[in-house]
C-alpha cells in the first residue's frame, strides 16, 4: 500500500470561496492538483466555470451564491450534506478598498463587515455543523491580510474587517477544537490579482514601485498563498490552530 503523504489532500472535500478569481481561483486549482474534491463558491457562475476548466480531475462541484445573503447561503450549502463530510474550507471571498476616514460612512462600514466578516462567520457556522464537517475533523482557513495586523493610511475600513477575522479566528479555534475543527488565518501582502490590479496603488508606476519596495521578496503570486493554504488544510498542520500565517514577502518583517 502507498504511504500516506502528510501534504496530500486525496480523499478530502474542500470548500473554496472566492473561487471565481485571484487567490481563491488558485486555491481551487492547487487543491485539485493534490487530489482534493473541491466545491467552488462565488457569485459569477461563468468565472467559476473558467476555474473549473483549469483544475485537475472532474469530480468538483460549482455552487454559485452570494455569501452576504445568509438565508440563500444556508439553503445552497444544504446540497453538501450528502458528500460524507467536509474536511476543509478556504474562505477567500472578500472585498477591499482604500478610503480616507472622511469617506467612511455607516453604509460602507456595514457593507464591508457584511462581506468580509458576517459572511465568514455564517459560512463557518454552517459548515461546521454536525452532518457537514467530516467526523475525523476539519480545517478552516480565512484569507485575511497584512492589513489586519499593521496599518497603512486609507486602509482603516479594510483593516477593521481583516483584524476582526484575525481576532475571531483565535476564539473560534478554542471553541471548535473539541470538535477537531482547526481554524487559522493566512495573511497575504500584496498579491497580483484583479483586486490588487484595480487598487489605487496600481494606477501609476510610482505608487506601484512604492508598494513593491515594502515587499523585500517582491509582490506575491496567488500560488504563494494557495501553497500555504494547502499546508493548513493538510494533515501536515494537524497540531496548528488559532494562528495567523503571514505570507507577505517580508512586508511585516520591517
Ligand atoms: N490581492 C491581494 O493583494 C490581497 C492581499 C491580502 C489579502 N487579500 C484577500 O484575499 C482574498 C481574495 O482576494 P483576491 O485578490 O483574490 O480578490 P479578487 O480577485 O477580487 O477575488 C475576490 C473573490 O471574492 C468573491 N466574492 C466577493 N464578494 C462575494 C460575495 N458577496 N459572495 C460570494 N463571493 C464573493 C469574488 O467572486 P464573485 O465576484 O464571482 O462573487 C471573487 O471570486 C480577499 O479576501 C482579499 O481581501 C488579497
From TrEMBL:
Pfam families from the UniProt entry: adh_short_C2
Domain Ketoreductase: start-end pairs: 12-153
Entries under InterPro entries matching the protein: KR_dom, NAD(P)-bd_dom_sf, SDR_fam
UniProt family annotation: Belongs to the short-chain dehydrogenases/reductases (SDR) family.
Name of this chain's protein: SDR family oxidoreductase
Species name: Chryseosolibacter histidini
Amino acid at each position: 500500500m502507498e504511504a500516506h503523504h502528510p501534504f496530500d489532500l486525496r480523499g478530502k472535500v474542500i470548500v473554496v470561496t472566492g473561487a471565481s478569481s485571484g487567490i481563491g481561483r488558485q486555491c481551487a486549482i492547487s487543491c485539485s492538483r493534490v487530489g482534493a474534491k473541491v466545491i467552488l463558491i462565488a457569485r459569477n457562475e461563468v468565472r467559476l466555470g473558467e476555474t473549473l476548466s483549469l483544475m485537475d480531475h472532474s469530480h468538483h462541484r460549482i455552487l454559485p451564491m452570494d455569501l452576504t445573503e445568509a438565508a440563500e447561503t444556508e439553503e445552497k450549502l444544504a446540497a453538501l450534506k450528502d458528500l460524507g463530510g467536509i474536511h476543509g474550507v478556504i474562505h477567500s471571498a472578500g472585498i477591499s478598498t482604500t478610503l480616507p476616514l472622511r469617506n467612511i460612512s455607516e453604509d460602507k462600514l456595514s457593507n464591508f463587515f457584511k462581506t468580509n466578516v458576517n459572511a465568514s462567520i455564517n459560512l463557518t457556522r454552517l459548515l461546521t455543523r454536525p452532518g457537514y464537517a467530516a467526523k475525523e475533523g476539519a480545517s478552516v482557513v480565512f484569507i485575511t491580510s497584512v492589513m489586519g495586523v499593521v496599518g497603512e493610511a486609507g486602509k482603516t475600513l479594510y483593516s477593521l474587517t481583516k483584524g476582526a477575522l484575525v481576532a475571531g479566528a483565535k476564539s473560534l479555534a478554542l471553541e471548535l477544537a473539541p470538535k477537531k475543527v482547526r481554524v487559522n488565518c493566512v495573511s497575504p501582502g500584496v498579491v497580483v490579482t484583479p483586486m490588487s490590479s484595480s487598487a489605487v496603488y496600481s494606477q501609476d508606476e510610482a505608487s506601484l514601485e512604492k508598494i513593491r519596495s515594502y515587499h523585500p521578496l517582491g509582490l506575491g503570486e496567488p500560488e504563494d498563498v494557495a501553497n500555504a493554504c494547502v499546508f493548513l488544510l493538510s494533515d501536515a498542520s494537524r497540531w496548528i490552530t488559532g494562528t495567523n500565517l503571514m505570507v507577505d514577502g517580508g512586508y511585516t518583517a520591517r
